[in-house]
Amino acid sequence: MAFAVIAHYRCEPADVTTVRAALLKLRERTLAEPGNLAYVVHAEADRPGCFVLYEQYTDRAAFDAHTKADHFVELNVECVRPLLTDRTVTFTEVL
Hints:
This protein is an alpha+beta fold.
């Protein structure tokens, strides 16, 4: 069964450019992962500094492998997360 992640990120307006660039670079690298089915980055239209990510993987193991990838650690854990003022993540199984 496919596994999906929906993440909501919020950052200060001064950090939008950095966060956006890192998320887009992360999307590019994640889409090349063998277990990734989708990685979509959204910027909320009426809320500057708010992003929504939708990620889909073949299974939970593929997602777990994604979180251990060098590009995930570099771009998400080390670059994006320290700039966030709020972060919520929902894990789902695709029906």
